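The data are quoted verbatim for completeness:
=====
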Amino acid sequence: MEPRVVFPRSLQYLLAIAEHGSYTRAAEALHISQPALSQQIRQLEASLQSLLVDRSGRSMRLTPAGEVYLLHARRARGEMAAGVRAIQDLQALSCGSLRLGWTPITDYLTCSLLAKFDSLYPGITLSTFEMPQGDIETAVMEGRIDLGIVFSKAFPSKLPSSDVDSTTLFTEKLCLAIGNDHCRAGQTAPMNPQELARESLVLLNTDFALRQHIDRYCCDHGIAPRIAVATNSLSVIIEMVTLGSLSTVLPKSIICRQPGLAPIRLSPEIPDNAITVICRKAGYKSAACRAFGTLALDWAERGRQPKTAC
């Protein structure tokens, strides 16, 4: 059913009187009785404390107050009709906005998803906010962003709240990343935790889910990682590993897309990360929000990333 403009009845009646110049003809056009029409107009005049219709002549005319009020009533009717059209546009995804939170890692992994969304819905303004995972979950629950893309398995205590719906898109294997000038360049054998402990690492700050995941792995295997640099920028990490002797731990798909990096498998492996879309469980979800969730699942199932050399 098509949405319609719900305009106050008394204003509809005043517009009909102005158009037809008669209570009788206005009542016939509105398919109501003349007394009912007259009563509604008198109630409107009482509420405004002003006479709107001049009833002294043979035909009905609006008073100066009625003419002024009619001008604004017509404008209001136009604005309400425009509001209905705007709602239809939102539902058709031809306009609107979507606010998305992600981490320095999930933005690398899902940029092609955002590009796909933009190509399908160019009228939707997509705003992204890079932040730690805990901040993303809080922002979703408080309604400051519509969706978040997070690691769902950083720490068991840090899993999304029961107030948040989560949908896993895919999992990522984590490997040590080294540059071409690293002393282990060309190594194909896996690295054990004791060897990892001797590496000089550049990692994200402890606010971020990937860093917490790495720290948990080191704790579980009784090693203390040697952190040379901690940063909140994935670009800085990649640049420093590419140019120097430092190494890092990243999702394998990110490593394989960087020309100056190569992966070394860890044994035992760091548990896989699940990349997850989260949104608020209760409350209104816009058409853009629902469309993004549907597209994200399809994008993940169809093969999200281009083929890589490793």
Remarks:
- The longest strand covers residues 164-172.
- The chain has eleven helices and twelve strands.
